[in-house]
């Protein structure tokens, strides 16, 4: 969910889509997926609220412990804080797909509890992530969340992760400095909206100004994040917030961003070079890491371990993706392309990506 600083030259062959989509669609796969989408579409507000609030509470409590403790105990608390807040923050993905009438107040609650405090309010993702799911945009130069990483230079992979480590500092600067300054300069404001208001990885992406309900959400969320960022800077500058506490908080949020960026590295195979793709081809370029492996519950929480399935069923809430996956596995034969997007784990996926960059 973080932005990289790779230049368009490094992106290589990504280009606007032309002609027919690459790859054909598998009719049986799409039929079973459509049935699952109908049957598993309803979110359970109780699960959403309990999961988000429990994750945020654990994360903030562990962050306080990391600040107050020392040595191994502080490091352990920091790890718990990073993973718990990462899970809480991952609900920003659900907010981009869910019908808000089915989860009344959840967007407001999430932004107050997680989005604004972590300087990643939902306007940074809403209106952006859905472009990644547009059939004619996926994998093209118009996709804000796609780079042909497997076709790029080997050094782009560590650079991709490094930029995430620096993201918390960039977000403080964006909201504490650029937001107030942009109110004084229409030209700067246009730049901030276009280039620094999206959690995207495609450096060529330029965001359009928001309209309607999103514009109203944007205003209050950006104002809240800006006030919070300015307050943090002032609290540290005046010594009210000890520098050690601030740096620990910065380290925890940096660790969150790095874990998410590593997850992003393996969310897709990143092998498309700019052509439009069929739905089945998009699915096969995406990744599931289903059970029985357990670690994806930590590094790909809130349904992100079923990222390929999510591209087939974007309207299905995270807590029902496991049941949808089991249905598709049962309903589709062994020769179905559905099984080709299921992978064993993180190390194998990272190794595949690195091998792709070495071949390039």
From TrEMBL:
Annotated stretches, region: Disordered:
1-23
Q: Which GO terms describe its molecular function?
A: oxidoreductase activity, acting on paired donors, with oxidation of a pair of donors resulting in the reduction of molecular oxygen to two molecules of water
Membrane-crossing residues? 58-86, 106-125, 155-176, 225-247
Per UniProt, residues of the Fatty acid desaturase domain are 73-338
Instruction: Please indicate if the UniProt record lists Membrane as a keyword.
Output: yes
Q: Which UniProt keywords apply?
A: Membrane, Transmembrane, Transmembrane helix
Domain of life the protein comes from: Bacteria
- Which segments show compositional bias classed as Low complexity? 8-18
- Any one of the GO CC terms: membrane
> By what name is this protein known?
Fatty acid desaturase
């Amino acid at each position: 969910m973080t932005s990289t600083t790779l230049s368009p030259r490094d992106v290589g062959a990504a280009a606007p889509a032309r002609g027919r989509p690459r790859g054909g669609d598998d009719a049986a796969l799409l039929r079973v997926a459509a049935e699952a989408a109908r049957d598993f579409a309803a979110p359970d507000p109780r699960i959403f609220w309990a999961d988000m609030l429990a994750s945020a509470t654990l994360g903030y409590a562990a962050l306080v412990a990391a600040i107050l403790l020392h040595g191994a105990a502080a490091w352990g608390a920091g790890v718990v804080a990073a993973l718990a807040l990462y899970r809480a923050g991952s609900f920003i993905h659900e907010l981009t797909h869910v019908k808000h009438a089915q989860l009344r107040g959840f967007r407001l609650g999430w932004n107050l509890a997680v989005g604004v405090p972590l300087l990643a309010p939902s306007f940074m993702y809403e209106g952006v992530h859905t472009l990644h799911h547009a059939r004619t945009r996926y994998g093209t130069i118009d996709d804000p969340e796609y780079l042909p990483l497997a076709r790029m230079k080997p050094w782009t992979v560590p650079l991709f992760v490094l930029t995430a480590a620096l993201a918390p500092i960039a977000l403080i600067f964006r909201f504490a400095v650029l937001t107030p300054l942009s109110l004084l300069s229409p030209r700067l404001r246009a730049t901030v909206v276009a280039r620094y208001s999206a959690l995207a990885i495609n450096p060529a992406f330029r965001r359009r100004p928001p309209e309607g309900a999103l514009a109203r959400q944007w205003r209050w969320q950006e104002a809240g994040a800006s006030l919070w960022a300015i307050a943090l800077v002032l609290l540290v500058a005046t010594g009210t917030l000890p520098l050690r506490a601030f740096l620990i908080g910065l380290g925890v949020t940096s660790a969150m961003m790095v874990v998410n960026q590593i997850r992003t590295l393996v969310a897709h195979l990143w092998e498309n070079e700019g052509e439009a793709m069929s739905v089945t081809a998009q699915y096969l370029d995406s990744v599931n890491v289903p059970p029985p492996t357990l670690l994806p519950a930590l590094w790909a929480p809130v349904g992100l371990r079923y990222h390929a399935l999510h591209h087939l069923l974007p309207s299905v809430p995270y807590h029902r993706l496991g049941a949808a996956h089991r249905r598709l596995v049962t309903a589709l034969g062994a020769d179905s392309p559905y099984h080709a997007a299921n992978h064993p784990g993180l190390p194998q996926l990272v190794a595949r990506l690195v091998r792709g960059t070495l071949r390039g």
